[in-house]
Specification:
Four copies of one chain form a homotetramer. Chain A folds into two domains: 214 residues, Adenosylhomocysteinase-like (Rossmann fold); 154 residues, 3-Layer(aba) Sandwich (Rossmann fold). Chain A contains 17 helices and 15 strands. The N and C termini of chain A lie far apart (63 Å). The first copy, chain A, is α/β, with parallel strands linked by helices. The longest helix of chain A has 24 residues. Chains A and B meet through helix 7, helix 8, helix 10, helix 16 and helix 17 of A and helix 7, helix 8, helix 10, helix 16 and helix 17 of B.
Amino acid sequence: MKSGHVKIDWVYRFMPLLKSIEEEYGPQKPLKELRIGMSIHLEAKTARLALLLRDLGAEVIVTGSNPLSTQDDVAEALRERGLTVYAKRTEDERVYMDNIKKVLTTQPHLILDDGADLTVTAHTEYQEALKNLRGVTEETTTGLRRFRALHKKGLLKVPVIAVNDAFTKHLFDNRYGTGQSTWDSIMRNTNLNVAGKIAVVCGYGWCGKGIAMRARGLGARVIVTEVDPVKALEAVMDGFEVMKISQAAKLGDFFITATGNTKVISEKEFLEMKDGAILANAGHFDVEVDVRALERICVEKYEARPNVTAYRLANGKVLYLLAQGRLVNLAAADGHPVEIMDLSFAVQALSLIHLAKTNLEPGVYPVPSHIDEKIARMKLASMKIEIDELSEEQRSYLENY
Amino acid sequence: MKSGHVKIDWVYRFMPLLKSIEEEYGPQKPLKELRIGMSIHLEAKTARLALLLRDLGAEVIVTGSNPLSTQDDVAEALRERGLTVYAKRTEDERVYMDNIKKVLTTQPHLILDDGADLTVTAHTEYQEALKNLRGVTEETTTGLRRFRALHKKGLLKVPVIAVNDAFTKHLFDNRYGTGQSTWDSIMRNTNLNVAGKIAVVCGYGWCGKGIAMRARGLGARVIVTEVDPVKALEAVMDGFEVMKISQAAKLGDFFITATGNTKVISEKEFLEMKDGAILANAGHFDVEVDVRALERICVEKYEARPNVTAYRLANGKVLYLLAQGRLVNLAAADGHPVEIMDLSFAVQALSLIHLAKTNLEPGVYPVPSHIDEKIARMKLASMKIEIDELSEEQRSYLENY
Amino acid sequence: MKSGHVKIDWVYRFMPLLKSIEEEYGPQKPLKELRIGMSIHLEAKTARLALLLRDLGAEVIVTGSNPLSTQDDVAEALRERGLTVYAKRTEDERVYMDNIKKVLTTQPHLILDDGADLTVTAHTEYQEALKNLRGVTEETTTGLRRFRALHKKGLLKVPVIAVNDAFTKHLFDNRYGTGQSTWDSIMRNTNLNVAGKIAVVCGYGWCGKGIAMRARGLGARVIVTEVDPVKALEAVMDGFEVMKISQAAKLGDFFITATGNTKVISEKEFLEMKDGAILANAGHFDVEVDVRALERICVEKYEARPNVTAYRLANGKVLYLLAQGRLVNLAAADGHPVEIMDLSFAVQALSLIHLAKTNLEPGVYPVPSHIDEKIARMKLASMKIEIDELSEEQRSYLENY
Amino acid sequence: MKSGHVKIDWVYRFMPLLKSIEEEYGPQKPLKELRIGMSIHLEAKTARLALLLRDLGAEVIVTGSNPLSTQDDVAEALRERGLTVYAKRTEDERVYMDNIKKVLTTQPHLILDDGADLTVTAHTEYQEALKNLRGVTEETTTGLRRFRALHKKGLLKVPVIAVNDAFTKHLFDNRYGTGQSTWDSIMRNTNLNVAGKIAVVCGYGWCGKGIAMRARGLGARVIVTEVDPVKALEAVMDGFEVMKISQAAKLGDFFITATGNTKVISEKEFLEMKDGAILANAGHFDVEVDVRALERICVEKYEARPNVTAYRLANGKVLYLLAQGRLVNLAAADGHPVEIMDLSFAVQALSLIHLAKTNLEPGVYPVPSHIDEKIARMKLASMKIEIDELSEEQRSYLENY
């Protein structure tokens, strides 16, 4: 069997929620006669989701959500299973945008977006794509920020379901998923020791919390940087050191960004860093570590290991950038663990089914809470975990006391 | 110096935020000509808050919020410093309610409530107390639940500020405060080992999270029980075992409730427990461990240590209940750590100042976000921790990209 | 029932190993016709051990091993149960030594020592006490160091069993016991928050490891100081910061010593500390925090809370010393958790039985490994934990492959 | 540059101790005129050690210590740098033994062994190799067990230095090295989530402790199995569940063996396991998971992912075995982190220098403690960490008090 199919078959076994949805909804084909444009990090787990949507009745057209995160063998396997796929790992940014547009040309009824590139392009350069569009589901914090900015300016033309904001998504994916997969990627790409090292985590949102928690779990001493004083205080109480990035720059062995912002680590910091410091980004876009500044100030640049670029600075020190500053867990490893994506993608699938049968005004909507609860119960059941139910007396106490 | 004053002087030194507020607002006397009724667990830290409110210009009348949590020496010290105090540790429930009413008789302009007993009584048995009342601040999850239930029925007559919901309150007080002080109380009252024992934590809200986190930090194996599937799943992902209380009953060495609900552990569970099991409640009311059922089914009852009541059951086993099932950290120890209460009480003080200068309709209101941010910044400053500020470019990126 | 008896009854229930030994050996009276001098921190758990030794046939004479760690109600209860007790909490050093001598006057056949004061005095000031003496068991690292120094000089006249070195003693008592009880004492005596604070742990032996582990478990940021480079490196790899005490002095909120050495924190460090720093000693003798230097350099000294002495320095800062620099978990709390002492005291009891039936040359001897294994098996059985047994094939593999 | 050289250059930068040794001892050539036979897991870090020994004057002949752990590109790079290398990844067991014998044919003066295959073969099938042999250094627990068994039978003909027993080796390599690299390998080869899963760790020696600690650090619920009651009790006190493998078999999602024994998980357990269970071995030999039993009882076998073999049993369940049951961190990942091996290999290098200048009787010797201390100091210095020194007064206190 070819590698793309082997990969997809592996994840099938560890995504019980998608299987349950297939079994429960498959016979009704709730997405039939709908064309879905998907912009995703194309690897085995997202491929599994694409196949589920197809099996729920949809016509599915797939593109990447990040040039480097596409796995070509998986793309090929999806094509062999009958989906339309416009994605390739080696593409440059222009090719990436061309593929985005190819998806839009099909005038999809629904968009499953990851970072908002597909939908934002439909609102700007390629507005005919809005014609059929009935709704969008968005996977990431970053994408939602973009949609909300768009809506604030009165420019959003479709309803967007904030998949990322579902409890069963962001509480798990951003924290446990990003936490594990970021360190998986750093370890496999560097073979360096984590215990006893200093890990600087920029941002203490759910992703940063997960990265910091796992850094400690691997034995690192953790420093957190933040701009939000409440989150900064939370990091302090969690036992981490908190300081400015300008102070942390001198101390860190590993630097990981997860802020959703730009130029979090830049020239000034690079010049202060220790020889051999490792730089990685776990945020959606490749702007958190200021790669352009690195390119500008380095005196030499070379490939130190696969996925590791060495930048020698004029001060003689060498900094190592993982995955060119792109999402380190996706561009240089296999992304979130399978079971975590099973949770997130169950939210996606049920949200798309929800969009297919409702008619919403433009705006950004939360995932209905019954979806969250349903998914959590499905997941617990798949783990054979039973929980308590409120008794009548308890329910009444909560309401009336 | 008498013990009440010694206790108050000690906490003074470790409550830098109240001191900062005193320095910043004291000269303006923003609470002058206002009478504040306080219902609180009366010990050194709440005494410090009462003194601050007095120094901000208010006339302060103090009562307890739980019969067993009043420390008489502190009450005495407050009286000696000129406050009116109606509270005593040895009081029975009737005396407790009498004191509540004594406070209401003064017709306060503002109420600082902890569990809502004071304000609820003003809405029911003693409605003349509503005459001057301009607003309430409520400290606990439990109290807010009661206020929201009241408001839903259209019965709430005053604006209530949800102090508990402030980030700088519930993220810190409920989690780190309850977490530490619950175990402090269990350890000091039992002298039992925690490492290697099985701790059953009922409820995985912020309090339960804190108690579970510290149980693990002390070396226990932790079992969580929940009724909410999302929280249950979160506990699983945090590495805890999750099961029904009926299963956990057979396994636990320590049982701690923090649900806000009633009869979380009851007769059926008591009969399944191991000989020597320890029962403690960390929720607001003494109904979580079903003490009446214990009293009913026991064949013998005796004081095993101070604050530890032994119940011998007909099956020969002995269960030990701490603090008669009341809030274990308050009724059998010193409550939350000083610095944690400094945070919460800074929210209280600034919320009361806010109420004093605004005019709100009846309802439950969040703490204004500028108060949260101000307090977090004050706290970081008191720890000499500096954090990053967004650059113009970053701010613009977040808004426009 | 009087408080001493209540305390002893409580620990009875949580010391299953001593109970098992009583049941297994009691009928044979293996210690009959032997007089045992015990020097111990006299509280409920050691009282339970004394009663076991009596029930194994011995005549038991008890004194303290530290002036401040004697609980008078327990001493009284022991007397009421027929033992001879020379110990009192309020005694001064001279009274303490007098009591030591009173025990020696009885010319015991066996000594159970804790810190070596009793036996060392028998070798120096009161040598007639050596006449009947057939052997000694020593509880602490500190005591063993003294015995080994004595033996190196050729002065040791009796065999000493190194109870502390038994796996079931030092792996558990020093680590889990000291770890929990030190923080229990600090929390109950200060009511201060641990999460987010900086805890400086001096010494990374088994005690220091336990204290550091629990400090982290309570949310502190931990700094370790060491003189041994291998232990220092281990602390680094465990994720702790390691530095000199001179650097740590400026940073710490809590300082805890557990080195077995003298003047670990002294004048130079005191002068660098932050206002409000808390000082505690978890080592055997009260010389680790240099209390004399504190007394000399302070401009004011007062009782800030029970067990907390405030020292105001000329630089205006106030340092708080717990328990006068004595063992903080014993002098200002209830010592190790009950179940931990059950393990250690099982080693004591079986070692004394071993001494009673063997005839050894002077020297320091390890606890026979069969005792260690027996105790570990007894403890697992008491927790209803079953473990694997080697198969014949596995045993042969280990020996022959 | 070819991949083998790139890999070696990468590790050079993160092995400061080997560099320090090169700088300190290189000029003296302490190993000149000595031929060293090395049996090692041949990858970049061991290659770096081989190059150091060459630079210290030795003639170095290299073979593997495990058929699957050889990286061919690194072997090639070593050949290109002038060393003699007899090792290949795809070799079968016979080829492996042939290579062992090729090294012995050169009649080395010193052997650096990893698992004892090279030296044991020299004592059995190829005794002429003993002629020049002056000493051996052994890296692993398993190898030392074999040497001690040999010595007990009077068959050991050379002195062996127990590198594994050095503090700077086993406290770090077995615990932090195996801990991290085992999970790195499991995560990269499966892409499965660890948080919320049940990890069964067989063996609670230093390796097992490390694996269990990291499993918890990654969010797993951990079950430990042991045959030694003291270690079992330690695992309990560390907060882990302890039970028999027969009970754990039904519960685990991941099973990792690290016992040094054979058939730790075998047919009886396989039949009880959950569908989808993952099996991995972190012990030296591939006998801990009983692969032969798996082969015998499976009804289908296929490659599920690279390094993951699926075994479908007659009960319909599929078990996944990583790396064919060989050392999972070496055979299916990059082995221990670079810096950890730097510590271990510093012990190797200084032990070989020690052997070169001393003349020892056959036997198993500890690493001299001055080597341990020197290495720890070198490592701390490389991290710019300063530690305290004993004062004269303190040294005297420790000796005389």
